[in-house]
């Protein structure tokens, strides 16, 4: 019985530390996903600008404040500007307060190339063009 106790106590504490570490890593991964989703859906710089494509993010948790590295592909090598990066960092820090982050963007310039192609005839279109709803007040102007 004494030998069993000698094994259970150190194994139990090791198991507890392992579970704590697993919870911390899971929380870090979830926070990384939340930040990436917020960047895609709530920022103009990384979510609405067609010249900037957010490839992904990674967070270095060993630094204080943690370093968020956003990898982006850009068609305009001047984007994003340092002011845009500072604005996105401020957005992250507001949304994750009281936790603060430092943001750096690793940008890769991409050139889009391809030959000009004539449009297909309307009869061959796979998806019909979207129908736009009528503008408010447009019905009264058609006299």
Describe the fold and architecture.
This protein is 42% helix and 17% strand. The protein has 3 helices and 3 strands. It has a 3-stranded mixed beta sheet. The chain starts with a helix and ends in a 34-residue tail after the last strand. The protein is α+β, with helices and mostly antiparallel strands. The model has no long low-confidence stretch (mean pLDDT 87). Strand 1 and strand 2 form a beta hairpin. The chain is elongated and about 85 Å long. It has a domain of 95 residues: 2-Layer Sandwich (GMP Synthetase, Chain A, domain 3), CATH 3.30.300.30.
Question: Could you state the order of secondary-structure elements as H and E?
Answer: HHEEHE
Mean pLDDT: 87
What name does CATH use for the topology of one domain?
GMP Synthetase, Chain A, domain 3
CATH class wording of one domain: Alpha Beta
For the report, how would you describe the main beta sheet? 3 strands, mixed
* Tally of DSSP helical segments: 3
Strand content: 15-25%
Strands of the widest sheet, in order across it, are 1-2-3
Total count of strands:
3
Distinctive features:
elongated, 143 residues, 3-stranded mixed β-sheet, GMP Synthetase, Chain A, domain 3, alpha+beta
Layout: helices, strands, pairs:
Layout: H1 2-42, H2 44-48, E1 52-60, E2 67-74, H3 82-95, E3 102-109
Parallel strand pairs: 2-3
Antiparallel strand pairs: 1-2
Quick structural summary:
This protein is of the alpha+beta class and 143 residues long. It is built from 3 helices and 3 strands; from the N terminus they run ααββαβ.
């Amino acid at each position: 019985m004494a030998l069993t106790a000698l094994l259970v106590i150190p194994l139990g504490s090791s198991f507890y530390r392992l579970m704590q570490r697993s919870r911390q890593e899971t929380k870090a991964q979830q926070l990384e996903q939340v930040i990436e989703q917020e960047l895609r859906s709530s920022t103009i710089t990384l979510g609405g600008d067609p010249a900037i494509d957010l490839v992904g993010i990674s967070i270095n948790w060993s630094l204080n404040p943690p370093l968020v590295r956003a990898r982006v592909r850009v068609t305009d090598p001047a984007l994003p500007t340092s002011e845009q990066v500072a604005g996105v960092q401020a957005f992250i820090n507001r949304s994750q307060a009281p936790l603060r982050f430092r943001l750096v963007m690793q940008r890769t310039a991409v050139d889009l190339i391809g030959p000009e192609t004539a449009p297909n005839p309307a009869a061959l279109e796979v998806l019909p063009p979207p129908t736009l709803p009528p503008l408010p007040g447009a019905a009264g102007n058609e006299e």
